[in-house]
Amino acid sequence: MANDFEGKVALVTGGGSGIGRATSLVYAKGGAKVVVVDRDVEGGEETAQLIKEAGGEATLIHADVSQAGDCQRMVEQAVLQFGRLDCAFNNAGVGGRDRVMTAEYSEEDWDRIISINLKGVWLGMKYQIIQMLEQGGGAIVNTASVAGLVAIRGTCAYVASKHAVAGLTKAAALEYAQSGIRVNAVCPGYIRTPLTQPLFDTMEGFEDQAVARHPLGRLGEPHEIAEAVAWLSSDAASFVTGHTMTVDGGYVAQ
Questions:
Q1: 158, 176, 190, 251: which is the annotated catalytic residue?
Q2: Maximum Cα interatomic distance, the chain, rounded to a whole number of Å
Q3: CB contact at 8 A, 148 and 187
Q4: What 3-state class would DSSP assign to 118?
């Protein structure tokens, strides 16, 4: 896959850490110019710098994906700087509260998770698709989750947001299939990232429980998701759209 993205421009939301950073690096290794989008300026700058140090091209855009103006601006700035947008990875997300039952969940927490995990993906796609229609095509990948395919107790808002991302991905894939735009989703299992590490550190026994849910007997690593995203974004996946790809160590096969 070394040269799959030569001459292409890729945008990654949540690119300042974890899966987003790993994917930004894979895109760059393949020759893409990378637009790193994150609310965390420090993390985003670090990702962009890692790409530059490896000889690639990258820029950071500070944005909140739950805000329409920010999503429109990130696409406009990407095109202004690099001339086009070929690949987009809508990855920014939050985990929300864990082990809180549906009837005990607060409206504030619900709204926050839905606004970032679902509305943020829709807003990103909205402006990415507008640009891709103008230039004649592109590839979009969204981050869903195994929680977008099966339920997990005590995480109702997260589960709802990720199921919705899976459905949104399929709907958009059908709508733009004949316009040269492919839309897919990746569904990670438990991955060791800055988002999940606090859970492993603070909730006794949680990491062992998470590992036990995966038939491969371990947690996933960000680069393993990044490689799947890169493939879905590449011409090698030219006949793949509307797909929710599990990268989960066998989690949902049980």
A1: 158
A2: 51
A3: yes
A4: helix
Report the alpha-carbon distance of residue 84 to residue 15 in Å, rounded: 19
Strand order in the sheet with 181-188: 58-62, 33-38, 9-13, 87-90, 138-143, 181-188, 244-247
For the 9-246 domain, the top CATH level (class) is: alpha beta
Q: Output the six-digit token pair for 25.
A: 């690096």
DSSP 104: G
Q: Domain segments of the chain: what residues?
A: 9-246
Start-to-end C-alpha separation, the chain: 31
In 3D space, the residue among 126, 119, 30 whose CA is nearest the CA of residue 76 turns out to be: 126
Render pLDDT for 99-131 as a digit per residue (tens, 0 to 9).
899 999 999 999 999 999 999 999 999 999 999
Residue in this structure with the two tokens 């589960």, named with its chain if needed: 159
3-state secondary structure of 61: strand
In the chain, which ranges are continuous DSSP H helix?
Answer: 18-29, 41-53, 68-82, 107-114, 120-135, 156-176, 197-202, 206-212, 222-233
pLDDT digits (tens, 9 = 90+) for 158-197: 999 999 999 999 999 999 999 999 999 999 999 998 878 8
Distance CA 107, CA 31 (A): 44
158 is annotated as an active-site residue: yes
